Amino acid sequence: MRFLLILITMSVFLASPAMAEKPNIIFILADDLGYRELGCYGQEKIKTPRIDQLAGEGMRFTRAYSGNAVCAPSRCVLMTGKHPGHAIVRNNRGMKPEGQHPIPSTEITIAELLKEEGYVCGAFGKWGLGNIWSEGNPNTQGFERFFGYNCQSHAHSYYPSFLRSDAAEYPLKNDPPVPGHASLPEGADPNDPKSYDVFKGQDYASDHINDEALAFIKNNKDRPFFLYYPSLIPHVALHVPDEQLEPYLAMDWNDPPFTRDGGYGYTPHFTPRAAYAAMISRLDGYVGKVLDLVDELGLSENTIVVFSSDNGTTHLKEEVDYEFFHSVGDLRGLKGELYEGGIRVPQIVKWPGKVEAGSVTDYVTGFEDWMPTMLELIDAKAKAPEDIDGQSIASTLLGKDDGQRNFLYREFQGYKGQQAVWLGNQWKGIRTGLLDKKKEDPLKIELFDLENDPSESKDVAADHPEVVKKIEGLMKTERTVSEEFRMGALDSLE
Q1: pLDDT digits (tens, 9 = 90+) for 138-167
Q2: Domain with CATH 3.30.1120.10 in the chain
Q3: 272-296 and 205-219 helices, crossing angle to 10°
C-alpha cells in the first residue's frame, strides 16, 4: 500500500509540471496597419523598434492574409476558424443601441476551445462582434475578462467618456469626450494649431487598455492564459498624445493640415502625417511593455506571441497619406479591397526555442488557420471543430516544410461586392463589382500571377483558361449563401 501511495504521489508530482508547461498565447492585432508600415517590413519613416525586435526573435510571414478587408468580418474569421464563405459575419454592420452584427451562441470561438483546455482567456481592445446584450458578448464567447470598446463606432474616438469593463462602464476623464467624427469649429482658423485643441482629450483610452492587458498577464502568470489584444491603433481618428508627436514634428515633414472640408471623415488634425506615425509608434511601445512584462515574469520561453493586422491601410488619403509612407509598398489596393494591399498583412510569431529566430516564410496563410494552429501547438489538435476551414501552420512555425496550401478563399460583401481565390503561391483570381448593377459583367474573373506580378498590374486570364476554370469552381463551392449578407449576382448562381 505504501508503494502504491508513493507511485500516486509521484504521478501527481510529474503531471503538475506538464500542465504548467502549456504555452501561454498572446495575440496582438493592430487595426488597419498596412503591410509595409513596420520597419521589419520595409517602412523607412515610422519607427517601430520593439515590433522589429519581435520579428528578429521570431518568424516573419510575407504572404499572410487577414480574415477580410474590414474589421468585423476579419475578426470573425480569426475567432471562428471559418473563411468568409462560411463565416457568420461578412461585413461591418451596426446594431442598436451599439455594437455590430453578433456571433451567435452556436458558433465556437478559439477562446471557448482554449478555455476547455484549462486556459484563462482575456480580450483587451476592440471587439466588434456583438454588443453586451447579444449572444456575441465576449464574456459569453469564452473570454472571462473583457476590457475596451465593445462597439467599433465607439472606437473611432481615443478620448471617449467610457470603456467597457466586462458589462460595466469604466469612466474616463474626458469631459467632454472627443468625438470620432467632427469638423473644425465654425470660424476657426485652419492654419492655427490651437484650432485643433478641441480634438485633444485628457485620458487616452489605449493607455488604459494596455494597463489592463498587463494586469491580466500578472494576475494569471501561474496558469496558462490566452491574451487577445485587438488594439485600436492605427485606425483613425487621428488622436494621439502630444508627447508622442514630438519626435515626428522634429523631422520637419511637409505636413499640411487635415481640415475635413466637407464629405465623410474623422476629426481634423494639424499635422496628420506626424500623428499617424506617432500612433503606430505608440502601439510599438505598448507591444514593448507586454514583451518586457513577459520577460520580467520569466514567461518568455513558454509564451507564443503573435502580431498581425486585421486588414490593410485605410483608403482615406486626406487623413492617412499612404503614398507618403509607402504603406502597402507596390501592392495594389487598400482597406476594403480584396486586392493584395487591402488584405495582405504583416504577421510575426515568436516562441523561443520552437520558432527559429530571424526566420522568414512565404507560406500562404489566413486568419482561419489560427484556430487549428493554436490547438495543435498545445497538443489539442483533435479538439478542432470539423466544420472549420482553417489549416494548421504549426509545422511551418516549427521549421518543417509543408509545401504550400492548395487554396485560400475570400469574399467581401462591402465595396460593391468582391470574391477572391489564391492557388498556392502563384495564382490569384478576383471578381469585383458583384453588387454593382451598372457593371456589365460582375462575374468576370481577373487572374494575376503573384510570383511575377505581386502588384496585380496585368490580367492574364486569357492566357490561362484552365486556371481560371479551377478558380471559378472554388468560388462556387467554397461558400454558402448568407441571408444577412447577400452577394447579388453571386447568390444567383447557388
Answers
A1: 999 999 999 999 999 999 999 999 999 998
A2: 408-493
A3: 10
DSSP class of 450: T
Of 288, 246, 357, which is closest to residue 51 (Cα–Cα)? 288
CB 89 within 8 A of CB 76: yes
pLDDT at 492: 80
Residues of the chain with CATH 3.40.720.10: 22-403
Class of domain 22-403: alpha beta
CA distances from residue 127 to 147, 231, 377, 453, 460 in whole angstroms, order as listed: 9, 9, 25, 36, 40
Backbone angles phi, psi at 179, to 5 degrees: -70, 160
Q: Tens of pLDDT along 218-233?
A: 999 999 999 999 999 9
For residue 260, what pLDDT is reported? 86
Check residue 80 and give its pLDDT. Answer: 98
Residue 429 burial (CB count, 10 A): 25
Count of other CB atoms within 10 angstroms of residue 258: 27
Q: Which residues of the chain register pLDDT less than 70?
A: 1-20, 263, 494
CATH fold label, 408-493: Arylsulfatase, C-terminal domain (3.30.1120)
Angstrom distance (rounded) from CA 90 to CA 411: 8
CA distance 142 to 25: 15
Of 358, 191, 330, which is closest to residue 268 (Cα–Cα)?
A: 191
How do strand 427-432 and strand 418-423 relate by DSSP bridges? antiparallel
Using CA atoms, how far apart are residues 407 and 358, in angstroms rounded to an integer? Answer: 27
Residue corresponding to grid cell 449563401: 481
**Residue 388, Cα to own-chain centre: how many angstroms?**
19
Q: Is there a cis peptide before residue 234, judged by omega within 30 degrees of 0?
A: yes
How far is it, in rounded angstroms, from Cα 309 to Cα 236? 14
Give the pLDDT score at 107: 97
Q: What is the mean pLDDT of the chain?
A: 94
pLDDT at 90: 95
Within 8 A by CB and 6+ apart from 45, the residues are 251, 277, 324, 325
Of 295, 282, 279, whose CA–CA distance to 26 is shortest? 295
The cell numbers describing 69, all together, are 478587408
Residue type present at position 14: L
φ, ψ dihedrals at 132, nearest 5°: -70, -15
Task: Tell the residue number behind the cell numbers 476629426, with chain if given.
Answer: 267
Write the single-letter amino acid at 325. Answer: F
pLDDT of residue 404: 84
